[in-house]
Design a protein that fits this description.
The chain contains 1 helix and 11 strands; from the N terminus they run H-E-E-E-E-E-E-E-E-E-E-E. The chain is α+β, with helices and mostly antiparallel strands.
Length: 163
Amino acid sequence: MMRILVVVFALLTAFAAVAQEQHDHDHDDHVSELAGFRAVHAWARATGSNSALIFMELENGSAAPVTISGGESTMAASARLVGFALKNGREVWQDIPGVPIKPGHALHLEPHGLALLLGGLSTQLKEGDELKARLHTSLGDLDLHVEIEGANATHHSHAGHSH
């Protein structure tokens, strides 16, 4: 009986280690951090066009204001910070030179708000794909792991769980 318990304990310990490793991997994919400034759940919609919007949650845990100002991706010719507006009843995205985020505050880049606009995409984005991008900040460049959601998505598929 004792041998069975030892084997069961060993199996449970191994399973817990694998589960923690998977959780750490998932956490790494969803969170990017630079000197206390974090980007969480970066995502974009699947698109058949040559542009896409990247959305994410930004959290400034540093002691100083951090300004975001744009970005880059090897999959796009440009990555500009933009804000949503209605002009003559049409949806438009206007360039924004930079947005400061105070220490201890958060900013959400989300549909019908702020976003990082990728222009000149080298390939279409399909649901389930991933892309790498960088967010330009006053601290330096923050590497992003961007998950591609469905074409009609309104939020990241993991929105609501915490990191």
